[in-house]
Amino acid sequence: QPHGRVFNFSAGPAILPVDVLERAQADLVNWQGSGMSIMEMSHRGKEFESVIQKAEADLRALLNIPANYKVLFLQGGASTQFSMIPLNLAKAGDTVDYVVTGAWSKKAMEEAKKYCNVNVAAKGDNKSVPDPATWKLSADSRYVHYCDNETIGGVEFKSTPDVGGRILISDMSSNFISKPVDVSKYGVIYAGAQKNVGPAGVTIVIIREDLVGHVRPEAPTMLDYKIHVENDSMYNTPPCWSIYICGLVFEKLLKAGGLEAQLELNEKKAAILYDAIASSNGFYNSPVDPAVRSLMNVPFTIPSQPDLEKAFIKEAEKAGMLQLKGHRSVGGMRASIYNAMPIEGVQQLATFMKEFAAKHAK
Ligand code: PLP
Which of 4, 9, 193, 283 can pair with 197 through a Cys bridge, CB separation 3.0 to 4.6 Å? Predict the structure, then answer.
Protein backbone atom coordinates (compact mmCIF):
# COMPACT_ATOMS: atom_id res chain seq x y z
CA GLN A 1 0.00 0.00 0.00
CA PRO A 2 1.23 3.55 -0.60
CA HIS A 3 3.34 5.09 2.19
CA GLY A 4 3.72 1.67 3.83
CA ARG A 5 0.16 1.84 5.09
CA VAL A 6 -1.80 -1.19 6.29
CA PHE A 7 -5.46 -2.11 5.87
CA ASN A 8 -6.99 -0.78 9.07
CA PHE A 9 -10.37 -2.31 9.93
CA SER A 10 -10.86 -0.15 13.02
CA ALA A 11 -14.40 0.84 14.01
CA GLY A 12 -13.12 4.33 14.70
CA PRO A 13 -11.22 6.48 14.49
CA ALA A 14 -11.17 4.97 11.04
CA ILE A 15 -9.03 5.35 7.97
CA LEU A 16 -9.22 8.29 5.61
CA PRO A 17 -8.76 8.13 1.83
CA VAL A 18 -5.04 8.20 1.12
CA ASP A 19 -5.37 10.99 -1.47
CA VAL A 20 -7.13 13.13 1.13
CA LEU A 21 -4.28 12.52 3.56
CA GLU A 22 -1.74 13.43 0.88
CA ARG A 23 -3.52 16.68 0.12
CA ALA A 24 -3.82 17.46 3.82
CA GLN A 25 -0.14 16.75 4.23
CA ALA A 26 0.71 19.40 1.67
CA ASP A 27 -1.71 21.88 3.21
CA LEU A 28 -0.56 21.13 6.72
CA VAL A 29 2.41 23.47 6.62
CA ASN A 30 1.24 26.08 4.12
CA TRP A 31 -2.41 26.09 3.06
CA GLN A 32 -2.71 27.10 -0.59
CA GLY A 33 0.07 29.66 -0.43
CA SER A 34 -1.36 31.47 2.58
CA GLY A 35 1.85 30.90 4.52
CA MET A 36 -0.12 29.28 7.33
CA SER A 37 -1.53 25.94 8.29
CA ILE A 38 -5.29 25.64 8.55
CA MET A 39 -4.63 24.82 12.20
CA GLU A 40 -3.01 28.19 12.71
CA MET A 41 -5.54 30.39 10.95
CA SER A 42 -8.15 32.61 12.48
CA HIS A 43 -11.48 30.89 12.27
CA ARG A 44 -12.93 34.33 11.56
CA GLY A 45 -10.65 34.93 8.57
CA LYS A 46 -11.77 34.68 4.97
CA GLU A 47 -9.65 31.60 4.30
CA PHE A 48 -11.26 29.43 6.95
CA GLU A 49 -14.65 30.91 6.19
CA SER A 50 -14.30 29.65 2.63
CA VAL A 51 -13.30 26.20 3.93
CA ILE A 52 -16.31 25.77 6.24
CA GLN A 53 -18.75 27.25 3.73
CA LYS A 54 -17.56 24.90 0.99
CA ALA A 55 -17.70 21.93 3.35
CA GLU A 56 -21.31 22.77 4.16
CA ALA A 57 -22.25 23.39 0.52
CA ASP A 58 -20.70 20.10 -0.58
CA LEU A 59 -22.43 18.18 2.21
CA ARG A 60 -25.73 19.81 1.24
CA ALA A 61 -25.19 18.70 -2.35
CA LEU A 62 -24.19 15.16 -1.33
CA LEU A 63 -27.22 14.55 0.90
CA ASN A 64 -29.55 16.83 -0.99
CA ILE A 65 -30.30 18.65 2.26
CA PRO A 66 -33.47 20.78 1.99
CA ALA A 67 -33.15 24.54 2.54
CA ASN A 68 -35.16 24.41 5.78
CA TYR A 69 -32.44 22.36 7.48
CA LYS A 70 -29.39 23.78 9.26
CA VAL A 71 -26.00 22.09 9.13
CA LEU A 72 -23.80 22.40 12.21
CA PHE A 73 -20.21 21.39 12.89
CA LEU A 74 -20.03 20.89 16.66
CA GLN A 75 -17.67 19.45 19.24
CA GLY A 76 -18.22 16.97 22.05
CA GLY A 77 -18.71 13.89 19.88
CA ALA A 78 -21.94 12.14 19.09
CA SER A 79 -22.14 11.46 22.84
CA THR A 80 -22.88 15.14 23.51
CA GLN A 81 -25.84 14.88 21.14
CA PHE A 82 -27.27 12.26 23.49
CA SER A 83 -27.90 15.15 25.92
CA MET A 84 -28.37 18.05 23.48
CA ILE A 85 -31.35 16.34 21.88
CA PRO A 86 -33.52 16.00 25.00
CA LEU A 87 -32.36 19.38 26.32
CA ASN A 88 -33.41 21.14 23.12
CA LEU A 89 -36.40 19.14 22.02
CA ALA A 90 -38.25 18.20 25.20
CA LYS A 91 -39.16 19.78 28.51
CA ALA A 92 -38.84 17.95 31.84
CA GLY A 93 -41.81 15.60 32.13
CA ASP A 94 -42.31 15.37 28.36
CA THR A 95 -42.37 11.89 26.89
CA VAL A 96 -39.83 10.86 24.27
CA ASP A 97 -39.58 7.54 22.43
CA TYR A 98 -36.35 5.57 22.11
CA VAL A 99 -35.78 2.45 20.06
CA VAL A 100 -32.93 0.40 21.48
CA THR A 101 -31.18 -1.84 18.96
CA GLY A 102 -27.73 -1.97 20.51
CA ALA A 103 -25.16 -0.37 22.76
CA TRP A 104 -25.24 3.13 21.26
CA SER A 105 -28.99 3.64 21.16
CA LYS A 106 -29.07 2.32 24.75
CA LYS A 107 -26.57 4.96 25.81
CA ALA A 108 -28.59 7.68 24.08
CA MET A 109 -31.73 6.42 25.83
CA GLU A 110 -30.07 6.36 29.25
CA GLU A 111 -28.86 9.91 28.84
CA ALA A 112 -32.33 11.12 27.88
CA LYS A 113 -33.72 9.58 31.07
CA LYS A 114 -31.90 12.30 33.01
CA TYR A 115 -33.99 14.95 31.34
CA CYS A 116 -37.40 13.58 30.45
CA ASN A 117 -39.80 10.71 30.55
CA VAL A 118 -38.40 8.00 28.29
CA ASN A 119 -40.56 5.37 26.65
CA VAL A 120 -38.56 2.47 25.20
CA ALA A 121 -40.78 1.89 22.19
CA ALA A 122 -38.97 -1.24 21.02
CA LYS A 123 -35.92 -3.30 21.85
CA GLY A 124 -33.72 -5.29 19.51
CA ASP A 125 -31.68 -8.39 20.29
CA ASN A 126 -28.40 -7.22 18.70
CA LYS A 127 -29.12 -9.53 15.75
CA SER A 128 -32.14 -7.92 14.16
CA VAL A 129 -34.19 -4.74 14.33
CA PRO A 130 -37.76 -4.76 15.59
CA ASP A 131 -40.23 -4.06 12.78
CA PRO A 132 -41.26 -0.38 12.99
CA ALA A 133 -44.91 -1.48 12.64
CA THR A 134 -44.60 -3.08 16.12
CA TRP A 135 -42.99 -0.10 17.87
CA LYS A 136 -45.05 1.08 20.84
CA LEU A 137 -44.73 4.80 20.23
CA SER A 138 -46.33 7.21 22.68
CA ALA A 139 -49.25 9.23 21.44
CA ASP A 140 -47.71 12.44 22.76
CA SER A 141 -43.97 11.84 22.29
CA ARG A 142 -41.81 14.85 21.45
CA TYR A 143 -39.63 12.74 19.18
CA VAL A 144 -38.54 9.20 18.27
CA HIS A 145 -34.82 8.43 18.50
CA TYR A 146 -33.08 5.45 16.90
CA CYS A 147 -29.58 4.51 15.74
CA ASP A 148 -29.38 3.80 12.01
CA ASN A 149 -26.28 1.63 12.33
CA GLU A 150 -25.20 -0.01 15.56
CA THR A 151 -21.42 0.00 15.29
CA ILE A 152 -20.83 -2.79 17.82
CA GLY A 153 -23.57 -5.24 16.84
CA GLY A 154 -23.37 -4.52 13.11
CA VAL A 155 -27.12 -4.04 12.78
CA GLU A 156 -28.29 -1.47 10.22
CA PHE A 157 -31.69 -0.15 9.19
CA LYS A 158 -32.25 -0.55 5.46
CA SER A 159 -34.95 2.10 5.21
CA THR A 160 -36.24 5.05 7.19
CA PRO A 161 -38.74 3.85 9.81
CA ASP A 162 -42.25 5.26 9.55
CA VAL A 163 -43.12 6.91 12.87
CA GLY A 164 -46.52 8.27 11.95
CA GLY A 165 -45.56 11.90 11.51
CA ARG A 166 -43.60 12.15 14.77
CA ILE A 167 -40.24 13.92 14.80
CA LEU A 168 -37.64 11.32 13.87
CA ILE A 169 -34.07 11.59 15.15
CA SER A 170 -31.23 9.38 14.02
CA ASP A 171 -27.72 8.69 15.22
CA MET A 172 -25.90 7.99 11.96
CA SER A 173 -22.40 8.16 13.41
CA SER A 174 -21.20 4.97 11.77
CA ASN A 175 -23.01 5.07 8.45
CA PHE A 176 -23.24 8.79 7.70
CA ILE A 177 -22.74 9.54 3.99
CA SER A 178 -22.36 5.83 3.25
CA LYS A 179 -25.67 5.88 1.33
CA PRO A 180 -28.30 8.36 0.16
CA VAL A 181 -30.76 9.39 2.88
CA ASP A 182 -33.99 11.35 2.51
CA VAL A 183 -33.18 14.09 5.02
CA SER A 184 -36.71 15.53 4.78
CA LYS A 185 -38.01 12.52 6.75
CA TYR A 186 -35.95 13.51 9.79
CA GLY A 187 -36.02 16.16 12.47
CA VAL A 188 -32.37 15.69 13.36
CA ILE A 189 -29.56 13.56 11.96
CA TYR A 190 -26.23 13.55 13.78
CA ALA A 191 -22.90 11.83 13.35
CA GLY A 192 -19.47 11.90 14.91
CA ALA A 193 -17.04 12.40 12.03
CA GLN A 194 -14.40 9.86 12.93
CA LYS A 195 -15.80 6.88 11.07
CA ASN A 196 -16.95 7.83 7.61
CA VAL A 197 -16.04 11.48 7.34
CA GLY A 198 -12.92 12.87 8.95
CA PRO A 199 -10.85 13.10 12.12
CA ALA A 200 -12.38 12.92 15.60
CA GLY A 201 -13.25 16.30 17.06
CA VAL A 202 -16.20 17.32 14.95
CA THR A 203 -19.79 16.11 15.04
CA ILE A 204 -22.14 16.94 12.21
CA VAL A 205 -25.72 17.86 13.06
CA ILE A 206 -28.44 18.35 10.45
CA ILE A 207 -31.49 19.88 12.09
CA ARG A 208 -34.83 21.08 10.76
CA GLU A 209 -34.97 24.79 11.48
CA ASP A 210 -38.26 24.82 13.38
CA LEU A 211 -36.63 22.54 16.00
CA VAL A 212 -34.02 25.19 16.80
CA GLY A 213 -34.68 27.74 19.53
CA HIS A 214 -36.47 25.66 22.16
CA VAL A 215 -33.65 24.86 24.57
CA ARG A 216 -34.35 24.70 28.29
CA PRO A 217 -33.21 27.88 29.98
CA GLU A 218 -30.99 26.02 32.42
CA ALA A 219 -29.06 24.18 29.68
CA PRO A 220 -25.44 25.23 29.11
CA THR A 221 -25.07 27.78 26.30
CA MET A 222 -22.79 25.39 24.42
CA LEU A 223 -25.62 22.84 24.33
CA ASP A 224 -28.10 25.19 22.66
CA TYR A 225 -28.53 24.50 18.93
CA LYS A 226 -29.67 28.08 18.41
CA ILE A 227 -26.40 29.62 19.55
CA HIS A 228 -24.53 27.48 17.03
CA VAL A 229 -27.01 28.22 14.23
CA GLU A 230 -26.81 31.96 14.86
CA ASN A 231 -23.03 31.83 14.83
CA ASP A 232 -22.58 29.52 11.83
CA SER A 233 -20.92 26.88 14.06
CA MET A 234 -18.41 29.50 15.23
CA TYR A 235 -19.80 30.61 18.57
CA ASN A 236 -16.51 29.45 20.00
CA THR A 237 -13.35 28.25 18.26
CA PRO A 238 -14.39 25.41 15.96
CA PRO A 239 -12.28 22.30 15.27
CA CYS A 240 -10.86 23.91 12.13
CA TRP A 241 -8.60 21.07 11.09
CA SER A 242 -11.28 18.40 11.42
CA ILE A 243 -13.78 20.50 9.47
CA TYR A 244 -11.21 21.10 6.74
CA ILE A 245 -10.59 17.35 6.32
CA CYS A 246 -14.34 16.65 6.27
CA GLY A 247 -14.58 19.19 3.44
CA LEU A 248 -11.95 17.33 1.43
CA VAL A 249 -13.86 14.07 1.91
CA PHE A 250 -17.18 15.64 0.82
CA GLU A 251 -15.52 17.08 -2.29
CA LYS A 252 -13.99 13.72 -3.16
CA LEU A 253 -17.31 11.89 -2.78
CA LEU A 254 -19.12 14.41 -4.95
CA LYS A 255 -16.52 14.07 -7.68
CA ALA A 256 -16.76 10.27 -7.47
CA GLY A 257 -20.48 10.26 -8.25
CA GLY A 258 -22.06 11.06 -4.89
CA LEU A 259 -23.79 8.74 -2.46
CA GLU A 260 -25.51 6.47 -5.01
CA ALA A 261 -22.07 5.49 -6.28
CA GLN A 262 -20.74 5.16 -2.74
CA LEU A 263 -23.62 2.90 -1.73
CA GLU A 264 -23.00 0.68 -4.74
CA LEU A 265 -19.36 0.33 -3.75
CA ASN A 266 -20.22 -0.26 -0.09
CA GLU A 267 -22.69 -3.00 -1.06
CA LYS A 268 -20.05 -4.64 -3.19
CA LYS A 269 -17.48 -4.52 -0.40
CA ALA A 270 -19.85 -5.87 2.27
CA ALA A 271 -21.03 -8.67 -0.05
CA ILE A 272 -17.45 -9.91 -0.40
CA LEU A 273 -17.19 -10.40 3.35
CA TYR A 274 -20.68 -11.79 3.94
CA ASP A 275 -20.11 -14.20 1.02
CA ALA A 276 -16.82 -15.31 2.58
CA ILE A 277 -18.74 -16.07 5.78
CA ALA A 278 -21.61 -17.82 3.97
CA SER A 279 -19.33 -19.98 1.82
CA SER A 280 -17.19 -21.17 4.76
CA ASN A 281 -19.42 -24.20 5.51
CA GLY A 282 -20.13 -22.86 8.96
CA PHE A 283 -16.50 -22.18 9.87
CA TYR A 284 -17.39 -18.49 10.25
CA ASN A 285 -20.69 -17.15 11.51
CA SER A 286 -22.34 -13.77 11.26
CA PRO A 287 -24.71 -13.35 14.21
CA VAL A 288 -26.84 -10.78 12.38
CA ASP A 289 -30.10 -11.35 10.48
CA PRO A 290 -29.19 -11.10 6.75
CA ALA A 291 -31.96 -8.51 6.25
CA VAL A 292 -30.22 -5.94 8.48
CA ARG A 293 -26.53 -6.77 8.16
CA SER A 294 -24.49 -3.59 8.31
CA LEU A 295 -22.57 -2.47 5.25
CA MET A 296 -20.12 -0.75 7.58
CA ASN A 297 -19.37 -3.05 10.53
CA VAL A 298 -19.17 -6.79 9.94
CA PRO A 299 -18.91 -8.86 13.14
CA PHE A 300 -18.15 -12.57 12.78
CA THR A 301 -17.05 -15.49 14.90
CA ILE A 302 -15.53 -18.95 14.56
CA PRO A 303 -18.33 -20.77 16.40
CA SER A 304 -16.95 -24.32 16.50
CA GLN A 305 -13.42 -23.29 17.54
CA PRO A 306 -13.60 -19.94 19.37
CA ASP A 307 -10.05 -20.48 20.61
CA LEU A 308 -8.89 -19.85 17.06
CA GLU A 309 -10.18 -16.29 17.03
CA LYS A 310 -7.07 -14.94 18.75
CA ALA A 311 -4.86 -16.66 16.18
CA PHE A 312 -7.01 -15.28 13.37
CA ILE A 313 -6.56 -11.73 14.62
CA LYS A 314 -2.83 -12.20 15.15
CA GLU A 315 -2.16 -13.76 11.76
CA ALA A 316 -4.28 -11.17 9.98
CA GLU A 317 -2.20 -8.51 11.67
CA LYS A 318 0.99 -10.12 10.39
CA ALA A 319 -0.52 -10.02 6.90
CA GLY A 320 -1.13 -6.25 7.16
CA MET A 321 -4.80 -6.27 8.26
CA LEU A 322 -5.21 -4.54 11.61
CA GLN A 323 -7.86 -3.88 14.25
CA LEU A 324 -10.02 -6.93 13.52
CA LYS A 325 -10.73 -7.73 17.16
CA GLY A 326 -14.43 -7.60 17.99
CA HIS A 327 -15.71 -5.13 20.53
CA ARG A 328 -14.83 -6.23 24.08
CA SER A 329 -18.52 -6.65 24.90
CA VAL A 330 -19.17 -9.20 22.13
CA GLY A 331 -15.79 -10.82 21.33
CA GLY A 332 -15.00 -12.52 18.03
CA MET A 333 -13.95 -10.38 15.10
CA ARG A 334 -15.31 -7.23 13.56
CA ALA A 335 -14.25 -5.78 10.23
CA SER A 336 -15.22 -2.13 9.86
CA ILE A 337 -15.30 -1.25 6.19
CA TYR A 338 -16.27 2.40 6.02
CA ASN A 339 -16.27 4.45 2.82
CA ALA A 340 -12.49 4.88 2.83
CA MET A 341 -11.68 1.16 3.01
CA PRO A 342 -10.56 0.22 -0.50
CA ILE A 343 -12.16 -2.84 -2.09
CA GLU A 344 -8.67 -4.36 -2.25
CA GLY A 345 -8.57 -4.41 1.55
CA VAL A 346 -11.84 -6.32 1.71
CA GLN A 347 -10.71 -8.75 -1.00
CA GLN A 348 -7.48 -9.38 0.86
CA LEU A 349 -9.39 -10.09 4.07
CA ALA A 350 -11.80 -12.46 2.29
CA THR A 351 -8.87 -14.38 0.77
CA PHE A 352 -7.21 -14.56 4.17
CA MET A 353 -10.45 -15.86 5.70
CA LYS A 354 -10.66 -18.63 3.09
CA GLU A 355 -7.05 -19.67 3.62
CA PHE A 356 -7.39 -19.61 7.40
CA ALA A 357 -10.55 -21.73 7.25
CA ALA A 358 -8.96 -24.22 4.87
CA LYS A 359 -6.06 -24.63 7.29
CA HIS A 360 -8.20 -25.09 10.41
CA ALA A 361 -11.58 -26.53 9.37
CA LYS A 362 -12.20 -29.97 10.88
N1 PLP B 1 -23.04 6.57 18.19
C2 PLP B 1 -22.49 5.57 17.49
C3 PLP B 1 -23.36 4.77 16.57
C4 PLP B 1 -21.12 5.28 17.61
O5 PLP B 1 -20.58 4.28 16.92
C6 PLP B 1 -20.34 6.06 18.50
C7 PLP B 1 -18.90 5.80 18.66
O8 PLP B 1 -18.36 4.80 18.27
C9 PLP B 1 -20.96 7.08 19.22
C10 PLP B 1 -22.30 7.31 19.03
C11 PLP B 1 -20.19 7.94 20.17
O12 PLP B 1 -19.46 8.84 19.42
P13 PLP B 1 -18.40 9.85 20.05
O14 PLP B 1 -17.23 9.03 20.45
O15 PLP B 1 -18.14 10.79 18.91
O16 PLP B 1 -19.04 10.52 21.20
Answer: 193
